[in-house]
Design brief:
The protein is an alpha/beta fold. The chain has one domain: Rossmann fold. 37% of the residues lie in helices and 18% in strands. The chain has a six-stranded mixed sheet, with helices on both faces. The protein is globular. The chain starts with a helix and ends with a helix. The C terminus is likely disordered.
Length: 211
């Protein structure tokens, strides 16, 4: 199906928050760990703000984690209504939270191997699987669409965004990491009468603005 065939009644901008502040300069598996945006992350979101300034955004929906809440505050400029949505939170990594993946491979070698074989159903100790993450994310997405009419922005996380794109593009969730989601990126979804066309994935708008 092409854009011409599907039409373009409105656009949904699915956004990944900017770079978080990692204590001790060590990137780790943060999942639902509530780290704030870094200075670099705020600049990434300001690039998105410039890109969206003429896109007639009706409302912004965001994960309640601080890095998404702050991203929403920047994008709204105090003028666009913002709504926190619990089900947009990142995948829960359970006991793996705050660990680097190198540490995980050492401490949980068999579990780490099983995760790589089946991203869809593998559950980290005391965490959730990507299928579970998608289930609540899909519910949130459909509720948001149902209650809005114009262009909207949804600010979430790499894992959640990838899971939603797998669903929207009918991609097996075991291939979830084939989807690029850099910090501060936009995924553009065209919606027409509850039909969805994923037009762009992993767009870095600050590059577009500089052009």
């Amino acid at each position: 199906m092409t854009l011409k065939e599907i039409g373009s009644l409105r656009t949904i901008y699915l956004i990944r928050h900017g770079l978080p502040f990692f204590p001790f300069n060590k990137r780790s598996c943060i999942g639902q760990t509530d780290y704030p945006l870094s200075w670099e992350g705020e600049q990434e979101i300001r690039g998105i703000q410039a890109y969206l300034i003429d896109k007639n955004i009706e409302k912004i929906f965001y994960s309640p984690l601080i890095r998404c809440k702050r991203s929403a505050e920047i994008l709204s400029c105090g003028t666009i209504p913002c709504v926190s949505v619990e089900d947009l939170k990142e995948i829960d990594m359970g006991d793996w939270e705050k660990m680097t993946f190198e540490e995980i491979k050492i401490r949980y070698p068999e579990e780490y191997k099983q995760r790589g074989l089946n991203f869809s159903s593998f559950i980290p100790p005391n965490g959730e699987s990507f299928s579970m993450c998608l289930q609540r994310g899909k519910r949130a997405f459909l509720e948001i669409v149902e209650q809005t009419k114009g262009n909207i922005a949804i600010i979430s996380h790499a894992g959640m965004n990838r899971a939603l794109i797998c669903w929207l593009r009918n991609i097996n969730i075991n291939n979830i990491f084939s989807i690029s989601q850099p910090y501060g990126c936009i995924n553009i979804i065209i919606e027409n009468d509850r039909n969805y066309y994923v037009d762009k994935v992993g767009l870095i708008p600050r590059i577009e603005v500089e052009k």
